[in-house]
Amino acid sequence: MVPTAFIYHEDFLKHNTGKQMYRLPSGHSMDVGLEFENGKRVAYIKDMLEKTGLLEHMKHVLPYEAAEEDLLRVHTQRHINDMRKKCQEGVRLLGSEVYGCQDSERIARLSAGGAMKAVDIVCNELEPINQAYALIRPPGHHAGANHAEGFCIYNNAAVAARYAIEKYPLKRVAIIDWDVHHGNGTQEIFYSQNQVLFMSIHEENYFPLYSGQLEEIGEGDGRGYNVNIPLPSGTGSAGYNIVFDHLIDPIIQQYQPDLIIVSAGQDPNGLDPLSRMRVMRPGFQAMAGKVREMASATSNARLVVLQEGGYSLPYLPIATLGVIEGMTNMYTEFQDPHGIPESPITDECLNSIEKCRMILSHNWNMQKERV
């Protein structure tokens, strides 16, 4: 087993999002009666890791709360003040599709601090652990410099990346985001610089609709360092494997990051209510294993995996189990009770990947033949 740290705190359960309201195109509000981003998500994942025996092989570490100076590396003072004020006053709606409670801003700082603690562990030369998985909430990749959005208050991956560069210091950090939704907040924060390579694999024409297009490649010093890989609905593990082998890995090998951070949303799974993709546990095993191998080849094995989305309570723990299995190279005997077959690769998916390869080849040395 590859030594791996596990970062978690029971306070993550205290971020109470309640039942969520959604506004329809007609302007009417609809109470869906659901809590998509809720504490059961992390509780069920932890329970799965305990019952399969994986957790006993990981080093359990508590996070700390990110300080204001840590948040200010990527967020504005206005945003931080706004989140703090709304939570203190008991305002439930903190941003577009972001719900919380009086304790949510503190817990969001704990979540960002969990990402920073993961960086501390893997960058400590005296610590024999090169990789860490942070089971944190609220998630972060939709939060921009000056706004909360899509369940996200502070951008955990962005805070961790900037912290790593300033604290240790590292020259280059790569963020790989496989959440089914585009990591628009992370893209916004790093769009004009090259110290952080941001790569997002997401379902095309989905949330948020205003970002995540293939042609969004960065600007100024950041041109070429923002990589979007939108995939058609229904893409399964076979399509994601091709993306990692033919798009992600070649760019990572050229960029040679000092640290790889993964925004690990397991909502591309086939049972997720907020996804139309079909990646099952073997697919998540494979993606995590590939990232682990990339880290070994480029970043002195330094790998940080941060929990993002995933909203199927029956399957999120199984999908995340696959991620941890791939990270640690330790595979459990757990039998998946869900009989969803792996999706075959489609011409539509291959054409999308080829289109991505053509665009990315303007800034990176990609193989010339079709995938």
Automatic annotation (TrEMBL):
SUPFAM superfamilies: Arginase/deacetylase (SSF52768). Residues 37-320 form the Histone deacetylase domain. One of its GO terms (biological process) is epigenetic regulation of gene expression. GO terms for molecular function: histone deacetylase activity. CDD domains: HDAC_classII_1 (cd09996). GO terms for cellular component: cytoplasm. Transmembrane segments: none annotated. InterPro entries: HDACs, His_deacetylse_dom, His_deacetylse_dom_sf, Ureohydrolase_dom_sf. Belongs to the histone deacetylase family. PANTHER family: HISTONE DEACETYLASE DOMAIN-CONTAINING PROTEIN, HISTONE DEACETYLASE HDAC1-RELATED. This is Acetoin utilization deacetylase AcuC-like enzyme. It comes from Scopulibacillus darangshiensis. The lineage of its organism: Bacteria, Bacillati, Bacillota, Bacilli, Bacillales.
